[in-house]
Specification:
With 401 residues, the protein is an alpha+beta fold. It has eleven helices and 13 strands. It has three domains: 157 residues, GAF domain (Beta-Lactamase), CATH 3.30.450.40; 74 residues, Signal transduction histidine kinase, dimerisation/phosphotransfer (DHp) domain (Helix Hairpins), CATH 1.10.287.130; 156 residues, 2-Layer Sandwich (Heat Shock Protein 90). Helix 7 runs parallel beside helix 8. Its EC number is 2.7.13.3.
Length: 401
């Protein structure tokens, strides 16, 4: 059996309605044998079978096509329906009824999506049956049309699944390429950064501003690469990598992030409340990255004339980090899209980044087992990260005992 024939049989087998159609045809006509056949110029193969006569044909079995009436249906592109062979002038002496021993018979053509002949919906029985009755004949034609339409849908589904599989494979290869490229770019960037630092120590006063701009550009490129690497890790199933430690001075890491962004946005006011007793099992560097991305987002999208507030607290075993800014409210529709990769607010300039900042924030939150909420009123928008500490878990365990 050729692969194309196996595919054709599988396409009929995959149509869930075919067994029901065969059963309905048998009940409608009273015929004991009904099947869907694939008919070519030189072959006849059964693709689906309902055999109550013990005719002996199973799915995939073949007949000599020259011994079948389906060959005539193929050549004439027209159905053949016989109530009673012995009373039919055209078929009473035909070799096929004598060979297979039937008196009632029908064979209706089936077509591929492009109109090409596929085969037949056919049936037979040793007893006569009123198959040419208009209501029965029309119903048989309808069932054949339904199977032909399902063949159309099956081709479309297979094409869609193939395209989806190709797109998924391409996407995975693209993300793997990005991950490798991002990793390999770190080495030359590190060399550029070290070279810039070395030049600054021996530069003339006039060259220092240029070297400072070069350093900031290199750091920006490095930050973009880090974002892309974090994105590909998340998309490829690895998730954001963490180096979990018991941090007893987390406020220092968070304060450093605030100071860096104050220096970068000297015209803006950042009010930070970071208690010195923050103690948390976490990846401090990732927590700093989470705060940095949230704070940058607030500085870019918040009111340029109002301060941005950063508040951290640890109460009753719940660590909470909130970044709030004044400005226009965020709609629910936009909130639902904020943490999607590469998403940008309408009108946002491409120069403001890759659109990965909030996606990475959400991945860091998930990796730590925390939650991230957005609360937006008419005047204030807050991004709030919450994380259950070890003491919270311990109290829950003690409460159950």
């Amino acid at each position: 059996m050729t692969s194309s024939l196996q595919t054709d049989i599988a396409s009929i087998q995959s149509i869930g309605s075919v067994p029901t159609i065969l059963k309905a045809v048998a009940e409608l006509t009273g015929l004991g044998f009904v099947c869907v056949a694939r008919v070519t110029q030189d072959s006849w193969h059964s693709c689906a079978v309902l055999d109550q006569l013990e005719f002996g044909l199973n799915v995939g079995d073949s007949l000599d096509v020259t011994t079948t009436i389906c060959e005539e249906v193929r050549d004439n592109n027209a159905a053949v329906i016989i109530d009673h062979v012995s009373e039919n002038d055209q078929y009473r002496d035909h070799h096929t009824p004598r060979m297979y021993g039937f008196q009632s018979y029908f064979s209706i053509p089936l077509y591929r999506p492009d109109g090409e002949y596929f085969g037949t919906l056919c049936g037979l029985d040793p007893k006569p049956a009123a198959l040419t009755k208009a209501s029965i004949q029309n119903t048989l034609m309808l069932f054949a049309e339904l199977i032909s339409r399902q063949l159309v849908n099956e081709v479309r589904i297979n094409a869609s699944e193939s395209a989806l599989s190709d797109a998924l494979e391409t996407s995975q290869l693209r993300e793997q390429f990005i991950a490798v490229l991002g990793h390999d770019l770190r080495t030359p960037l590190g060399a550029l950064l070290n070279g810039t630092e070395l030049l600054r120590h021996h530069a003339t006063p006039a060259a220092v501003p240029v070297l400072n701009r070069m350093r900031r550009s290199i750091e920006r490129i490095a930050g973009l690469i880090d974002d892309v690497l974090d994105f590909t890790r998340g998309r490829m199933g690895g998730g954001i990598s963490l180096n979990m430690r018991h941090e007893k001075a987390l406020h220092l890491t968070l304060a450093q992030v605030v100071e860096e962004l104050r220096a970068a946005h000297a015209d803006r006011q950042i009010i930070a409340v970071l208690p010195a007793d923050l103690s948390l099992l976490c990846d401090a560097a990732r927590m700093g990255q989470l705060l940095s991305n949230l704070l940058k987002n607030a500085l870019v999208h918040g009111s340029q004339s109002e301060p941005v507030h950063v508040r951290a607290s640890q109460v009753n075993g719940i660590f909470e980090l909130a970044v709030s800014n004044q400005g226009s409210p965020i709609s629910r529709e936009v909130v639902a899209k904020l943490f999607k990769p590469f998403w940008r607010a309408q009108g946002q300039s491409p120069s403001e980044g890759l659109g990965l900042g909030l996606f990475i924030v959400s991945e860091i939150a998930k990796s730590h087992g925390g939650t991230l909420d957005v609360v937006s009123s008419d005047t204030t928008t807050s991004f709030i990260y919450r994380y259950r500490t070890a003491s919270f878990v311990e109290r829950r365990i003690l409460a159950r005992e």
